[in-house]
Amino acid sequence: MIRYQFLRFPQGKPKAVTFSYDDGHPSDLRLSDVITKYGIKCTFNLNGVSYRGEKSFSPETCEEYIFSRGHEVAVHGWGHRAEGHLRPIEGIREVLDCRLELEAEYGRIIRGMAYPDSGITKLTNTSSYEDIKDYLSDLGIVYSRSLGGDNNDFRLPRDWHNWIPTAHHTNPKLMDWIEEFVSLDVNSRYKANRFPRLFYLWGHSFEFDREDNWDLLDKICVALGGKEDIWYCTNIELYEYVKAYESLIYSADSRRIMNPTLHTLYFAIDGTDYAIAPGQTLFLEDK
Questions:
Q1: pLDDT tens digits, residue range 111-131?
Q2: Max alpha carbon distance in the chain (Å)?
Q3: Of 20, 15, 8, which is closest to residue 178 (Cα–Cα)?
Q4: Each residue of 54-84: pLDDT tens digit?
């Protein structure tokens, strides 16, 4: 009898790490240099091209420091205004104008976002999270990073439009949580604890300039990077992989599993690891 099935990341890895940095500051280029050295991937959340002015990354710069290194660009609001303080029509324009400008500038489809400023943590002017989530979905934004709930739960997001990261890089508990995450035994004897784990770090690269502590970023990357049981991904890569896994099709008795997606998907059932290729149907033998 099948008791528990849990997602595994590419190559069967039980853990994932993703970074998210905001505002498109020139220091992002240095951040890209550092994290790429350790094999870590980041989503860079940018405001509207014309709003950023001198901070704007040229397409050539983004290709060299972001796209060619496997990183991602995401929406951060055209004018960096918090959706929770905007009437729906204003919020729609902030997100749509930013997405249109970024896609035109970089020639990419951009579907991710990080809320600017206080985001959805404070709601005024008749705004509601339900309205914001609805219009983000209508605008093709599939996830949006929020804030205000740092924790060492290490769970995958329960609501993609209210995606709470693990910690800001200034969190005083950060290194303890990294140590806890890295040392976690996802294949514990207690089967219900074998769910996948995620460590999601966020911040602003200019904070390392302001505090003169770029050595902290190296310390973080040394602690998190180069681990065989960790998948290093961007925000959109994580979203797309999890959604693909959720698209698996099962027979009524759960013994046949069909993969209708373009991803090779990995999962574990009661301690046995499986991989299922695009278009493949897997038959599970009785134990």
A1: 999 999 999 999 998 899 999
A2: 63
A3: 15
A4: 666 899 999 999 999 999 999 999 999 999 9
pTM of this structure? 0.96
Q: What is the pLDDT of residue 50?
A: 78
Go through 181-217 and write b for each residue having 16 or more CB atoms within 10 A of its CB, e for each that does not: beebebeeeeeeebebbbbbbbbbbbbbeeeeeeebb
Distance (Å) of CA 135 to CA 120, 161, 243: 13, 11, 20
- In this prediction, residue 55 carries a pLDDT of 65
CA proximity to 77, closest of 104, 37, 100, 46 = 46
Tell me how crowded residue 40 is: count the other CB atoms within 10 A of its CB: 23
Which residues neighbour 158 within 8 Å (Cβ) at sequence distance 6 or greater?
Answer: none
* Dihedral angle over CA of 129, 56, 206, 226, nearest 10: 80
CA atoms of 285 and 33, how far apart (whole Å):
48
Distance CA 100, CA 228 (A): 38
Q: Which two tokens stand for residue 275?
A: 């991989």
